[in-house]
Amino acid sequence: MHKYIIMGPQGCGKGTQAKLLTKKLDLSLITVGDIFRWNIKAHTKVAARIKRIVDLGNLVPDDLVNQIVSKRLDEHDWNYGFILDGFPRSELQAKFFLENYDVDGVIYIDVPDEVVMNRALARRHCSTCGLDYNLIHRPPNVEGVCDACDGTLASRSDDKVEILKNRLEHFNLHTKPTLALFSKKSWWFGWMVREPWRKFRIIFVRVLAFKNNSAESRFGLKKPPLKTHFSCPYRRPLASCQWPSFR
Known about the structure:
Helices cover 43% and strands 15% of the residues. The longest helix is centred in the last third of the chain and has 15 residues.
């Protein structure tokens, strides 16, 4: 069983990459943001509270987030494991997770703030089928219309300049430091977005195959030569990014 957390600022592309990786690795995807949106759509008991907080550009309180994530993980509908997206976002959330669950690794996607702003403001979401678009990297064939179901495309309610600035500030001050907590319990894989995303997935899957011998046969991959650190020209300097050690 493999359990991973994917982290990065809002708009960095972690949601898209998480979906692709879960398909590649046959894992379940647990997205906290989607759980919030489902609660709002289903008018659950916590829906009004979540909607009010999100619309103001604020983050959902730690106790409520921990409660929702714990309830979701306790469903145990993940056979081979999961990738958790959108959690934790604070030191308290990280401590709660590490006290109650274990994790095999953390994927950290690092993107400059100005790139994140441009990507997030260009995001669109189909209100009918839920398909995601990006006007920069994955625009629809017809502006404002979903390619799959002809539904209407709209931006997310929290994809606004001031809200994004607040989220980035919170991420840099509160979420990013949680990597130090996870580094004591597991390895983490850092990726500076300067190269094509396809290379990110290739390299990450090879890291998994290298880290876990059983993954080699399961993913049909040939293990790279044994080295102290996984060698690739796209890695960040080791001084600023802890890569998995394979001694």
